[in-house]
């Protein structure tokens, strides 16, 4: 880093940061921006790149203010031999001294030539001194101007420093805002992705819902058609059942009428049967009485007197009575209405 308050060769403001030094004749510092070098490129420059750097002024012809040792040309110096001719004369004089026996005329010619050259050099030195004084006065004026400019530059440097601090603060704030913007962008991207997923899911749900609705509508149509068919079938069955019911009612009424008729006939037959039973019982009783009387008379006629014989005759009479009873019972059991129950007949119907 260059020392503080080194004036820039271009803007004359003190170089503190981002500066580069000319390695040419002027040996001055320059702001990188003043010589069209960006701060980024300056930081990338290596030491071998910085050391041979020369400003644009040093690359061209040096001005008197920046090259005080440059020869000052004048109309007399253009026509005079110059320092090189003086050196030639000195060599001639030295050569003349080494050679003995030279004539006086040659020596005077050399002395005249040397005197002429010295006078010419003296004139040139006077002119150069005059030019140096003029240049010195110009330099003093320039120094005063530079001091004033330096003071202004120091003030500007303070302002620049404040601006740099403000710039640093703004850069920090800009960095924070940049990070915040990145965060918001990431958040926005996440929300956009989430919304896209929600939209895709909604589209999928909508598609599934439409498919379900279509299936339900198709099933509803099928069920409606089936319901209509079932309704027609049920109506037909109901009509058929109604007809069957009417027919059954008529059959029941007919069977009830038949049952009533049968019941009347049954009652009549039962009364007849009871009358016949009474008659049969009366006949049997009369028959048994007659049989008994006949057996008794037979026994009397035969003269049976023993107890065993009497018992045998009683057994025989009992046997005849049992046989007669069994025959009568068998005849009654063969009658068709004897064992029937009117209630059972009604239930069977």
From TrEMBL:
Residues 122-219, 245-279 form a coiled coil. Residues 66-85, 330-349 are annotated as: Disordered. PROSITE patterns: ZF_PHD_1. Residues 70-82, 330-343 have a biased composition (Polar residues). GO terms for molecular function: zinc ion binding. Signal peptide: none annotated. SUPFAM superfamilies: FYVE/PHD zinc finger (SSF57903). Keywords: Coiled coil, Metal-binding, Zinc, Zinc-finger. This is PHD-type domain-containing protein.
